[in-house]
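Hey, resending since the last one bounced:
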Amino acid sequence: MARKHIWISVIFALWNMVCGQTVYSVSEETNTGTAVGNLAKDLNLDVSELESRGFEIVAGPNKKYFDVSVKSGVLHVKDRIDREGLCGRGSKCSLELEAILNSPLNMYRFEVNILDINDNAPTFRSPSFSINISESTSPGQGFTLPGAYDADVGTNSVKTYKLSPNEYFSLDVQSGGGDSVSAELMLQKALDREKQAVVKLTLTAIDGGKPAKSGSINIVVNVVDANDNRPIFSRQLYKAKITENAPTGTSVITVHATDLDEGLNGEIVYSFINHDEDNNIDIFEINPSTGEIKVNGAVDFEKSNAIEIRVKAEDKGSSPRISHCKVLVEIIDINDNAPVISITSLADQVKEDAKPDTMVGLITVVDGDAGQNGAVKLSLLSPVPFKIQNTYKNKYALVVDGPLDREQVSQYDINVQATDEGSPALSSTSRITVHVSDVNDNAPRFPEPVINVYVKENSDVGAVITTVSAFDPDMNDNAKISYTFLEGSDKSFPASSVVNINSDSGEIYALRSFNFEELKSFTFKVQATDSGSPQLSSNVTVNVFVLDENDNSPVVLPPYSDHGPANTENVPYSADAGYFVAKIRAVDADSGYNALLSYHISEPKGNNLFRIGTSSGEIRTKRRMSDSDLKTHPLVILVSDHGEPSLSATVSIDVVVMENADELKTQFRHVPVKDETFSDLNLYLLVAIAAVSVIFLLSLISLIAVKCHKSDSSLTGYNPPMITTHPDGTWSYSKSTQQYDVCFSSDTLKSDMVVFPAPFPPADAELISINGGDTFNRTQTLPNKEKPGG
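The structure tokens again:
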């Protein structure tokens, strides 16, 4: 009994499904929320039980368009309905749906008819249509015209055609039943090619909507010769499917037409018609003899998901007859597109002082795929002072994101990667080259803050003594340097009077010849300025040291003279060995070795009675006198400096041996000064003595104020010689590689002061001597002895 009860319940449910079917109607494009009908009422259902029994529409492809309220049982529109998209041009567009109730289970089937509205106007595939008609064609002959396409159906589809007024043709509109309406061009009057070779007409298609919509096409009639049969295709519409990226040569479909004529009039040639100038058909080719269509290019779903081809069949008659058919090729999509990066509005250069967020260029990313395969992310592959900003949809901006320094990096090669979200993900990269332009942010720099220049005296006027050079890491005008002469800190001596500078090359040249005895050193500055805006500059201090040359000969000081007759000195016959005869003093205006003098007896050669101190200039006896010695001894004293080449002076002295001491003349005599003249030599000596006195006083004051004075030569690498006098009167010197701190005691100050004519006194000399003076040690007190002749 239980099994019988179950079968009765199933049969009852099936009966409800069959007999309970309800049909509704709704127009396409109806607003969402519009009520279609009261489904609960039409199914005789209790509204109060709908919610508890779970009344709902069964899931299916049509559920998304409708929904039912469990409160009222009303069926309403849920989503936009496009009849053409759902049913194409079918005469009936009905959506089948099912609703269920639980506890007990009941299923109800109902339909919703989608009513067409006139939302599409008739269109032609091409704006024009050409037809050839023989002039021998008899009136009454009809010619098929292209039909207009209207996506609507029923009364909203194409209902009639109209032809523009003309004297040759009329229009025959034929209805094939349903929505099929065609038009033929009827010849009403015989054509005369010589009178009119081309007849231009306008065909207008009108639908049956209210208000009616229309579309038109231009008809061009070319008047030619006779051919009474045209090719006929086996079908007017061919359909085919092909996968995108299909290789070249892949067969798509073959069209076929027949012609009842014989000979050339029956031979058919197939070709494509591209009235729409649609380049999509270029990816296909047709065999003109067989009608086979093959792939001849890149098939791309993203470019077009369906391609409509119009094929023309034309016979080979003298007046060819033509017929047409359509081939619809559907493209099946695959994921085959990587993102494409294009750079637009890229700045040629970016200034190195550009602020953050300064835009450098625009980037556009396009992915031909759809959905997730077309969603793209853009990123930089390497760390650079730039970043990517999304501006709008697939538009991005490359902007500055950090400090730029052209002197460090003048060009950035930025690699940008675009990756879609497909699976597997496809990506592409692009390189963007950004040039960093220079700004004047670097001042010219000299290698050293101070430049020491050593130039020999008596150099040529205009000679280049040195060249200064500054470096500017900027470029172009920002690195173009000009040099300017600036005076030094010594306002009393204008350095510009002796040197000048070439503003372009930095060469410093002499305006006059240097004289060490007049000018030993001077200082000035050179300023290097670039040509940027604003201009930047820096200075360098130039110390010029004039190097002495041996250009002054020694000068013998009074009472002896190297001019005129010989001088006379008397010596007693009883003089012992070492007896002081005379002392020769001489000075040299040069400095250093050029002013270091030595004394020698040059005549008579081989003299064994007298000797002279090489460094002191003192003439003394070597031994006691003998009876065999001459009474008068003429001596020629040679005074030489140590320059290269050496310069010298001579003085003549006649030493007379006196038998009686009373007859001995005064040992030292003075050279009388002529009253009528003041010689140049006397003037020179006076100036030299005054200069030596001033230097002496200044040295004395300095020594009293500072007991210990560190002596350091300002000349880099200058090592003055050490001069030593030996007990036998000879002297020697050696170069010192050390510097000394010399301390003078009060006892030292009591001794003779040293005046050394060099610009940098040899502070490290252990033993030094005045030209023609006594030798002493700086750190010891000279013995108080009487010096002959004062």
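The radius of gyration is 62 Å.

Sorry for the duplicate.
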